[in-house]
Specification:
heterodimer, A: 277 residues, 13 helices, B: 292 residues, MetI-like fold, globular, disordered N terminus
Amino acid sequence: MNTFKQHSILPGFNLALGFTLLYLSLIVLIPLSAAFIRTAELTWPEFWSIVTTPRVVASYRLTFGASFAAACVNVVFGLLVAWVLVRYHFPGKKLVDALVDLPFALPTAVAGIALTALYAGNGWIGQFLEPLGIKVAFTPIGIFVALTFIGLPFVVRTVQPVLEDIESELEEAAATLGANRWQTFTRVIFPVIFPALMTGFALAFARAIGEYGSVIFIAGNMPMISEITPLLIVTKLEQYDYAGATALSVVMLVISFILLLIINLLQWWSRRRSTIT
Amino acid sequence: MSTITFPASGETFRQRATQEPAWVRRSLIGLALAFLTLFLFIPLISVFYEAFKKGVEVYFAAITDPDAVSAIKLTLIVAAIAVPLNLVFGVAAAWAIAKFEFRGKNLLITLIDLPFSVSPVVSGLIYVLVFGLQGWLGPWLAEHDMKIIFAVPGIVLATVFVTVPFIARELIPLMQAQGTEEEEAAVVLGASGWQTFYQITLPNIKWGLLYGAILCNARAMGEFGAVSVVSGHIRGSTNTMPLHVEILYNEYNFAAAFAVASLLALLALVTLALKTLIEFRNKQHQKSRGHE
């Protein structure tokens, strides 16, 4: 007991920690373990054949590809939005700043139907793209659009505080030493915000991989073409293929855990970087 | 300021050295706003436009439809259970983590964050595996005539799962920053544990608590994937608002779907407004503390 916890005169440790562990076990850990235990009932070849059928592999490729592309776009534009919000003044800035979090607050189903209506052939945006031969709704591009929307706040919100904390002296020093603005940005500012940028990328990517609500409306959900892995899980479940759904969800869980680990490492790196500078 | 200032023209020189030329500034602002307009503002506006496209009467008919009303009620009930549960959990977890030093703390924090990284669909599925007919407790529940999956308790459980981290992760850094001196002083002066919590800790964390609760509530009311897996989509009984939106949309009843969706969008806007208000208040508070 003494080695487990440092002495404190405050009461309530056992109650608080006990309740926390009980709650986490009942709500999170036991149900999550169910997925692994149920999958362990399958033999390895059975498991492997379920998670590597062509339809499933196509869904991985789509889910990861679209998530990666969306996270990349969010890195570029997230950095731009964060930069503009921190460095410049313009009318309506506070409102814009507040609305950046909209994808966190807006239910995914609402985002899904709104984006579908916009990008459908007769929608506000779709009607301009259709004559150009670009179809967005009901294609993989639509999935990319939905995932970009969902991941938008992550990069902005991880980069913004780091950008705010950069001392202006650093940039002034760079300027007095003869650097132009672009050099100051690439050599002084960018290295400082890089870990935060990567954290934002990883968060947006991780969120996009599991995303379901906003994607299924706009995707068209054609097997092999525009069917994401979470949807495949639901489809298998609706066909009472519990083993298949569970095996796929274990794959998704393992990927999520690896990403969570990477995100934690990135955040640790980011904190270290920003305390050094 | 340790920079060299030049007489007379010094001010403008420094401005130029650490700021981009005006045309760069303007084009960056323009580009950022164009991106946000395309991906944020237009989708938001379109929800309300589509909702009212067929007129105010159609709109009100859609949101006063009995199925819509029961979906709204169920959504409120689910949030009214999930948010307080996670509130109690968040306070307990933050108390243990922020006020005490013990081994395995970082692991515990990671575990609390876990639901954020799980796909909503998987969050629903794991409850089917535990409580569904094919699940661990399924046969026992069926024997005792209890239903969790495809019923309200399943919806509540899945919602609780996806919203577990919200309040805890607001409170943990806040309470860590506040330290333990105030509580220790209260205990030394003879206050009991609960007295210390109610009179010292709670006033210090009330804004963080509210902030977390608002975000938790928005997610609880808006959750789609996890709830969709466990709900069974029974109209008028296990349909939450987001699920009702999906049903209406799949029936090509777009005006009604967007009408119900507009209520959820309104909830999102209120959430953002309250969030901004609390952030603004905290900033003012910090400033006034800094001046003391």
